[in-house]
UniProtKB/TrEMBL annotation:
Protein name per its UniProtKB record: DOCKER domain-containing protein
UniProt keyword Phosphoprotein, yes or no: no
Family affiliation: Belongs to the DOCK family.
GN (gene name): Cni-F22G12.5
Stretches the record annotates as Disordered: 165-184
Species this protein is from: Caenorhabditis nigoni
Length: 733
């Protein structure tokens, strides 16, 4: 009814229009409450009927009743109506508990939670408090259903030993809030992230923050149960999503921060397969624009895992999750655990065609990153499907791609011209400048052979933009002198670190090649060494041999390692190893032997023998002008006072280190003899005589021969040496 037609019963009255408005408001409230009462009656009837028999139109009626409740909670309704609707929704949740929290599509639950979050941003305190209580009720129901699911998994584990591994994984994931809270835990983050995308007012809403605080106030933190802790963890994640959404624009010029925000938002969409995959795809595109192809491949692989999991749940694909370990071993653990129970994730309707297209993108990124070894295992996901569907055209394309990939892999193995990354330890110091990053340690991965100077310049420029001034100082020292710290300066410590694999690691130790694929995959341990004297002071001048010690720092980063969806990972532990002067000497001898063997093994793998490099290594080991170094170790540590200090067992280790070096030198001399021409024969004879003289002196120090009885094996000679022998024998290749 239009107000233009309203007339006052009392002529001249000025209160006629407000009175009429009040009448209309009361009438609309009464109509809304009548509709709500009728809807609740239908809801009771529907819930009762579903316990005994199935109505043919029960699904559409359920959706209609829920939509009616949600529309009555819109902003234009009065406070009284909205409070009654929220109470009615609580009753609705209890009536259809199984339908919302145990099975069926996730869309109704998502719609319900989205409306509750909007009510939590209301300017009316009573509506906020009621919405907070309703969200608490929804989370409580989800928690109870999830606890029943986990209990059944534990029971299945106790009954069936074959399921032990899978259920251990499920049990280990109970600490994740989204799983402990079941379906609502995963859908709350999805609902908030969508609201932030479509209703920007929510991202900076102080009212919504008060709504979150109202939920937090319902938790008794003094006697917090596992449910209370899960709710608090979920609230922390929701606040993180809000912060990340606002910070996206500010991080446009900071690629590392931008990647962190993308991953944080991807985690907020763990209840939606399509949206989580979309955030990984967006981050992969950003990486590809800046030519960070290894990181882009990891992001694409996450999307592959998301699609594969959905197809596996629909019984359309059998997934061997081990294939993702060739890229990053955290991918399968993360994507298999997202949502725990399959019913917690909104399906995206992915098909095997989507999987094939995403695998092609991942393979292309792996090729550009020169990580050829990971392409073959990845295609194992889709090849059985293509064979089953007799899609021969696609199979031809796949095998052509594999042929090209393995050709490139053989090429780089032969040439040795592949560098999968350089790593630096970075520590930020300056609380007034770096805020939360003050006194934190990180490992950065850089492309190829990035020098320390180039990286230091890059990180300095980045920090200057971050702190807003030019007073950024790069430090190469391991420890800062706190007495000389200038509070107006931001300090950045940078150290070049080498990848390493611990002795007790389950990862197979790769060949001793600095850029080996296995060494640079799932890489989580690094080390660097520093020569010192026994009082742990850094060397300022060359001390005596028996005073030199070696300090090795071993650093571990978070699980998963490099390559990762992030270009840097936080340091989680730092350990120190110290080696005595004699142990230091043994390491130097073994390192020299290892360098010689690596040069020979490279030729055995199909490369041309690096004759000049081999001769330089031999010259450094045996020629009289420079062999004082190795022989000096024997001369110093075989003296009586050193024997008494270290004992016979340590001297035996030194002797075996020399034996290792002499054995490597003997192999190198034999290879050099086969590879050189007549113009270098005199030089070779000098090497041989120096080797013999060195052996005689070592025999006087240790009282035993250190020469290995090695017969030359023509089949093990480098190809260049075999070629020379063939030519001498008149054999043509």
């Amino acid at each position: 009814m239009s107000l233009d037609y309203c007339t006052s019963p009392f002529p001249g009255s000025t209160n006629s229009i407000p009175f009429r408005v009040l009448q209309l408001v009361n009438l609309s409230q009464e109509v809304a409450l009548i509709v709500l009462d009728v809807a609740q009656t239908f809801a009771h009837q529907l819930a009762a009927s579903q316990r005994h028999r199935h109505w043919p139109h029960s699904e559409s009626l359920f959706h209609s009743l829920l939509s009616l409740h949600l529309r009555l909670a819109d902003e234009h309704w009065s406070e009284s109506v909205r409070l009654h609707v929220i109470a009615g929704l609580a009753l609705f949740v209890n009536l259809f508990r199984a339908r919302l929290f145990e099975g069926g599509p996730l869309e109704p639950l998502y719609m319900l939670i989205e409306k509750v979050l909007i009510q939590m941003a209301s300017r009316l305190p009573a509506v906020q408090a009621a919405a907070a209580a309703l969200l608490q009720l929804i989370l409580r129901n989800g928690y109870e259903v999830a606890q029943g699911y986990f209990a059944s998994q534990i029971l299945a584990q106790s009954v069936s030993p074959s399921t032990k591994i899978n259920n251990q994984a499920n049990g280990g994931r109970k600490g994740v809030s989204s799983e402990r809270l079941g379906r609502p835990g995963s859908q709350t983050g999805v609902a908030l992230a969508r609201l932030l995308g479509f209703q920007s007012v929510l991202s900076n809403s102080a009212a919504f923050e008060r709504g979150l605080s109202a939920v937090e106030a319902l938790v008794d933190q003094r006697k917090a149960t596992s449910f209370d802790l899960a709710v608090l963890d979920l609230l922390r994640q929701l606040r993180g999503v809000m912060t990340a959404t606002v910070a996206l624009k500010d991080a446009a010029n900071d690629p590392i921060r931008l990647a962190d925000l993308h991953l944080q938002l991807a985690d907020s969409y763990r209840g939606s397969a399509a949206l989580r995959s979309a955030w990984f795809d967006t981050l992969a595109e950003l990486y590809e624009q800046d030519r960070w192809f290894a990181e882009a491949a990891v992001c694409h692989a996450h999307s592959v895992a998301i699609i594969a999991r959905e197809l596996e749940e629909r019984k359309e694909l059998e997934v061997d999750w081990r294939v993702f370990e060739w890229i990053n071993n955290q991918i399968s653990e993360t994507e298999q655990s997202q949502g725990g129970d399959a019913g917690n994730v909104q399906p995206a309707g992915f098909t095997t065609e989507n999987l094939g297209a995403k695998i092609d993108k991942t393979a292309a990124a792996l090729m550009l990153a020169e990580r050829f070894e990971a392409v073959g295992p990845l295609y194992r996901l889709i090849v059985p499907v293509l064979e089953r569907n007799m899609n021969f055209t696609s199979l031809v394309s796949v095998y052509a791609e594999l042929q090209q990939t393995y050709s490139r892999a053989a090429e780089v193995r032969s040439s040795g011209k592949r560098h999968l990354g350089t790593y630096f330890r970075v520590r930020f110091y300056g609380e007034n400048h770096f805020k939360q990053e003050h006194n934190t340690d990180w490992i950065y991965r850089e492309m190829g052979l990035t020098s320390l100077a180039a990286f230091a310049l890059e990180i300095k420029e980045k920090c200057q933009r971050q702190v807003g001034h030019d007073r950024v100082q790069i430090e190469a020292n391991e420890h800062l002198d706190m007495a000389k710290i200038d509070p107006t300066v931001a300090y950045v410590q940078i150290t070049h670190v080498e990848p390493s694999i611990s002795e007790d690691s389950a990862t197979p130790r790769p060949p001793t090649v600095s850029n080996d694929f296995l060494l640079h995959t799932n890489l989580s341990e690094f080390s660097y060494e520093c020569a010192m004297v026994e009082n742990e002071r850094k060397l300022s001048k060359e001390p005596a041999i028996h005073e030199q010690i070696l300090k090795r720092t071993v650093i571990r980063v978070s699980s998963g390692g490099f390559p990762s969806a992030r270009r840097r990972l936080p340091v989680i532990s730092v350990n120190y190893e110290q080696f005595s002067p004699l142990e230091f000497a043994c390491q130097k001898l073994n390192t020299k032997a290892e360098q010689i063997r690596k040069t020979l093994s490279a030729a055995a793998n199909g490369r041309r023998l690096d004759v000049k490099g081999l001769q330089l290594l031999l010259q450094g080991a045996v020629l009289p002008t420079v062999n004082a170094g190795p022989l000096a170790y024997a001369e110093v540590f075989t003296k009586d006072e050193q024997r008494e200090k270290y004992g016979d067992e340590a001297i035996v280790k030194l002797r075996e280190s020399f034996r290792n070096l002499m054995s490597a030198c003997q192999l190198a001399i034999e290879a050099n003899a086969s590879a050189i021409g007549s113009d270098q024969q005199t030089y070779h004879e000098v090497l041989v005589s120096s080797f013999d003289a060195m052996h005689e002196r070592l025999q006087t120090f240790f009282g035993a021969s250190l020469r290995g009885n090695l017969e030359p094996d023509p089949s093990q000679l480098p190809r260049s040496a075999m070629h020379i022998l063939d030519m001498m024998g008149g054999v043509r290749n």
